[in-house]
Amino acid sequence: MGKIVKQVAGIDVAQKELVVTLGHLLDDFSIELFAYKVFKNSDSGFKSLVEWTNKLTDNEVDVLYVMEATGVYHQKFAYFLTDNNYKLSIVLPNKISNYMRTLELKTVTDKSCSQAIAQFGLERKLDKWSKPKVTYKELQQLTRERDQIVQERSIIKNQIHAEITEAEPNQRSLERMQARIRFLNSQEKEIKEDIDCIVKENPDLRQIIDRITTIPGVGELTAVIVLAETNGFELIRNKSQLSSYAGLDVKEKQSGTSVKGKPRISKKGNRALRKSMHLPALTAVKWDDNFKETYARLVSKHGIKMKALVAIQRKILQLIYILFKNETIYDKDYTIKK
């Protein structure tokens, strides 16, 4: 066997288990996947996984642990690895799914996913992952909690409307539902106050938000959501990657003359990020001439308003990223000046 130049543990993360495949890259550029095992997604499972990995791998070559960013289930293990100084790379889910298509797998299982992740880690040069900034982590928790409250309040409002519309509304039921609305309103107010406190305590974050909110339709809450969901654009390297991460990238299936699918957004991405762009896009189209012209041109081209609005959402999200990276503010006359 040749000399080992790289070692990877590819991990497919689920709620209760970690499916692991070990592989190494040799000096002749050949790849070998040589071990597979399932561990519990718990503290005891983390320790067992690391011990098993250390036992089967070459101690002279560092092991790179590679996993997808799967909701919240990967976070505890990711924190465990970084706290114990192990090398870790977390990859955006769309990257792994796109890579797996090139492998032409006939069946997709937890094992085949972990094998694909291990192979991906061996073939690519990946960035080292570091723990999210505490500020962004706290903001993400708060904004997601607020979103749940908004959804719950919307459901109760619909129930109130249905109750009032009935021939004989139950007054006691209405009183209880209205009490829940007041309670949810008070909780949302508390969350907004917590967010304001965090922003005030971080002058650098305050400056970033002030720059981002120069974009028409983008308010402080939207800016906070985008920064929190991307960890300050930590894993984002370009605009197209950001669109893909949010699920606002366009997918299209076309082959020859017989297969011609309609282009549509993938929706395989961060739902909270995608959702946060809806109202800003509506506002920008109404009040900013640049977005208004773009929207009108797209609608006249294909006649689908929602499709044009999604394009505006994508444009605003990319613009937020540009202002963040360039440390500048929105200039509606930029194209004319250029």
Structure description:
Helix content is 57%, strand content 14%. It has helices at residues 43-56, 75-83, 93-103, 110-123, 134-165, 171-200, 203-212, 220-230, 239-246, 271-275, 278-287, 289-302, 305-326, 334-337; strands at 4-13, 17-26, 31-40, 63-68, 87-91, 250-251, 254-255, 259-260, 264-265. The strands form 3 sheets. Strands 3-2-1-4-5 form a 5-stranded mixed sheet. A two-stranded antiparallel sheet has the order 6-9. α11 (278-287) packs across α13. The longest helix is centred in the middle third of the chain and has 32 residues, at 134-165. The radius of gyration is 24 Å and the shape is globular.
Salient structural properties:
338 residues; alpha/beta; 5-stranded mixed β-sheet; two-stranded antiparallel ribbon; globular
Low-confidence stretches: 252-261
The count of β-strands is 9
Strand content: 5-15%
What string gives the helices and strands in order? Answer: EEEHEHEHHHHHHHEEEEHHHHH
Number of helices: 14
**Rg from C-alpha positions?**
24 Å
User: In terms of structural class, how would the helical and strand content be classed?
Assistant: alpha/beta
Helix content: 55-70%
Describe the sheet with the most strands.
5 strands, mixed
Characterize the overall form.
Answer: globular
What would the average pLDDT be, to the nearest integer? 89
User: Which strand order does the major sheet show?
Assistant: 3-2-1-4-5
Distance N terminus to C terminus? 59 Å
Question: In summary, what is this structure?
Answer:
With 338 residues, the protein is of the alpha/beta class. The chain is built from 14 helices and 9 strands. Helix content is 57%, strand content 14%.
